[in-house]
Amino acid sequence: MSYSYKKLLQERLKYVILKVGDIIVDNVGGHIGILTNRTRHIDMVEDDVFVWRVKWINNVVKELYDVSPASTILEEENLKLSIIAGTYDWHSITGETFEL
Questions:
Q1: CA distance to 9, 19, 29, 38, 49, per residue, from 25 (Å)
Q2: pLDDT digits 0-9 by tens, 37-68
Q3: How far apart are alpha carbons 81 and 87 in whole angstroms?
Q4: Is the dihedral of CA 18, 39, 86, 59 positive or negative?
Q5: Residues sharing a CB contact under 8 Å with residue 58, sequence separation 6 or more, in sequence order
Q6: Which tens digits make up the pLDDT trace of 86-96?
Protein backbone atom coordinates (compact mmCIF):
# COMPACT_ATOMS: atom_id res chain seq x y z
CA MET A 1 0.00 0.00 0.00
CA SER A 2 1.48 3.33 -1.02
CA TYR A 3 2.06 6.03 1.57
CA SER A 4 -0.43 8.47 0.03
CA TYR A 5 -3.19 5.83 -0.11
CA LYS A 6 -2.54 4.83 3.49
CA LYS A 7 -2.63 8.47 4.57
CA LEU A 8 -5.92 8.99 2.70
CA LEU A 9 -7.49 5.99 4.47
CA GLN A 10 -6.29 7.21 7.86
CA GLU A 11 -7.75 10.65 7.14
CA ARG A 12 -11.14 9.17 6.19
CA LEU A 13 -11.19 6.87 9.22
CA LYS A 14 -11.21 9.93 11.49
CA TYR A 15 -14.66 10.88 10.19
CA VAL A 16 -16.30 7.58 11.09
CA ILE A 17 -17.11 7.91 14.79
CA LEU A 18 -19.32 5.02 15.80
CA LYS A 19 -21.82 5.26 18.66
CA VAL A 20 -24.30 2.98 20.39
CA GLY A 21 -27.55 3.15 18.44
CA ASP A 22 -25.93 3.71 15.04
CA ILE A 23 -27.43 1.72 12.19
CA ILE A 24 -25.37 -0.18 9.62
CA VAL A 25 -26.73 -1.65 6.42
CA ASP A 26 -24.91 -4.61 4.88
CA ASN A 27 -24.89 -3.82 1.15
CA VAL A 28 -23.88 -7.39 0.27
CA GLY A 29 -26.50 -9.35 2.22
CA GLY A 30 -29.14 -6.66 2.69
CA HIS A 31 -29.10 -6.96 6.48
CA ILE A 32 -29.67 -4.08 8.88
CA GLY A 33 -27.88 -3.92 12.22
CA ILE A 34 -27.87 -1.68 15.27
CA LEU A 35 -24.65 -1.12 17.22
CA THR A 36 -25.50 -2.03 20.81
CA ASN A 37 -22.26 -2.21 22.76
CA ARG A 38 -18.58 -1.28 22.38
CA THR A 39 -16.02 -3.35 24.28
CA ARG A 40 -12.27 -2.96 24.68
CA HIS A 41 -10.13 -6.05 24.27
CA ILE A 42 -6.42 -6.41 24.87
CA ASP A 43 -4.69 -7.94 21.84
CA MET A 44 -1.12 -9.27 21.93
CA VAL A 45 -0.21 -7.51 18.67
CA GLU A 46 -2.42 -4.40 18.49
CA ASP A 47 -2.65 -3.72 22.27
CA ASP A 48 -6.09 -2.04 22.34
CA VAL A 49 -8.76 -3.49 20.07
CA PHE A 50 -12.36 -2.36 20.25
CA VAL A 51 -15.25 -4.52 19.10
CA TRP A 52 -18.92 -3.74 18.53
CA ARG A 53 -21.83 -6.01 19.32
CA VAL A 54 -24.40 -5.78 16.54
CA LYS A 55 -28.09 -6.63 16.87
CA TRP A 56 -29.11 -7.70 13.37
CA ILE A 57 -32.77 -7.15 12.52
CA ASN A 58 -34.85 -8.41 9.61
CA ASN A 59 -33.07 -8.06 6.33
CA VAL A 60 -34.29 -5.90 3.48
CA VAL A 61 -34.85 -8.70 0.97
CA LYS A 62 -35.83 -11.64 3.18
CA GLU A 63 -36.82 -13.96 0.35
CA LEU A 64 -33.31 -13.74 -1.16
CA TYR A 65 -31.29 -13.86 2.06
CA ASP A 66 -33.02 -15.97 4.67
CA VAL A 67 -30.09 -16.19 7.09
CA SER A 68 -28.63 -13.63 9.45
CA PRO A 69 -25.05 -12.43 9.07
CA ALA A 70 -22.54 -14.79 10.66
CA SER A 71 -21.05 -12.37 13.16
CA THR A 72 -22.76 -10.40 15.88
CA ILE A 73 -19.39 -8.98 16.95
CA LEU A 74 -17.42 -6.76 14.57
CA GLU A 75 -13.95 -5.34 15.16
CA GLU A 76 -14.13 -1.54 15.09
CA GLU A 77 -11.34 -0.75 12.62
CA ASN A 78 -12.55 -3.41 10.18
CA LEU A 79 -16.09 -2.04 10.47
CA LYS A 80 -14.86 1.49 9.77
CA LEU A 81 -12.88 0.29 6.73
CA SER A 82 -15.96 -1.56 5.49
CA ILE A 83 -17.95 1.66 5.79
CA ILE A 84 -15.32 3.59 3.83
CA ALA A 85 -15.18 0.85 1.18
CA GLY A 86 -18.97 0.84 0.83
CA THR A 87 -19.62 -2.67 2.10
CA TYR A 88 -21.71 -1.15 4.89
CA ASP A 89 -23.78 2.02 4.85
CA TRP A 90 -23.56 3.87 8.17
CA HIS A 91 -26.29 6.01 9.68
CA SER A 92 -25.32 7.65 12.95
CA ILE A 93 -27.82 8.54 15.65
CA THR A 94 -26.29 12.04 15.59
CA GLY A 95 -26.88 12.44 11.85
CA GLU A 96 -23.39 11.71 10.52
CA THR A 97 -22.86 9.48 7.54
CA PHE A 98 -19.94 8.65 5.29
CA GLU A 99 -19.97 9.38 1.59
CA LEU A 100 -17.07 9.66 -0.83
A1: 21, 15, 9, 18, 23
A2: 999 988 777 678 899 999 998 655 555 555 65
A3: 9
A4: negative
A5: 32
A6: 999 999 998 87
Q: Domain map of the chain by residue range?
A: 3-91
pLDDT over 70 percentage in the chain:
79
| Residues 6+ away with beta carbon under 8 Å from 26 | 32, 33, 59, 69, 87, 88
Residues written for the chain? 100
d(CA 54, CA 46) in angstroms, rounded, equals 22
What residue spans of the chain are helical by DSSP H? 3-13, 76-85
- 53's enclosing H/E stretch is strand 47-57
Given a contact cutoff of 8 angstroms between Cβ atoms, the answer to whether 43 and 57 are in contact is no
Question: CB of 55 within 8 A of CB of 33?
Answer: yes
